[in-house]
Amino acid sequence: MAPARVTFELMGRLLGLLAALALAMGFAVFSAPLAGASEGTRWLVAPCPSGSKALWLPRVDKFGTDLSCTTEEARGKAVKEAVDSGSPTRMMNVAIAFAQQIADKSLTPESPCMLGAKGAIGDAMGTCVAA
C-alpha cells in the first residue's frame, strides 16, 4: 500500500472517530441524565482492586460499552484496537465510552440514579439498586 494511501486512510479513521466523539458528547452534554432517576434508589459502590479503576470500555462485537475495573493502559489498548479496526460501530463505541466516563465524573454515592444503571463513581464501580 502506498504511503499516501495509508495516511489518507488513517486520516479518514481519525475524522470518523472525531465525528463519533462529537455526536456522543452532544448526547452526554445535552441529555437530561436525571430525568429518569427513580425514587427510593441508591448507588451500591464496589471498590476496584488495587491498581485498577472503573473505566468505560468500547464493546468489540456489537454496539455499546461495558464498565469494568481495569487499567488506563488496557483501556488505551482497547481504544486503539477499535480505532484501528476501521469499524464505524467500534469507533462510535469509543466515543460513547469517553462520553460516559466524562458524564460519570459528577457522580457521587448520593447522586440520584435509575434502577439497574451502572456508573464509575470515583475509581469504584457503582450499580443503582433499590434503597
Q: How many distinct folded domains?
A: 1
Query: Strand share of the residues?
Result: 15-25%
Mean pLDDT: 83
What's the total number of strands? 5
Order of helix and strand elements from N to C terminus: HEEEHHEE
Poorly predicted spans: 27-34
* Class based on secondary structure composition and strand pairing: alpha+beta
What this model shows, in words?
The protein has 131 residues and is an alpha+beta fold. The chain has one domain. It has three helices and five strands. The strands form two sheets. It has a three-stranded antiparallel beta sheet with strand order 1-5-4. It has a two-stranded antiparallel sheet with strand order 2-3. Strand 4 and strand 5 (124-130) form a beta hairpin. Helix 1 (3-30) packs across helix 3. It is globular. 26% of the residues are buried. Residues 27-34 have low confidence and may be disordered.
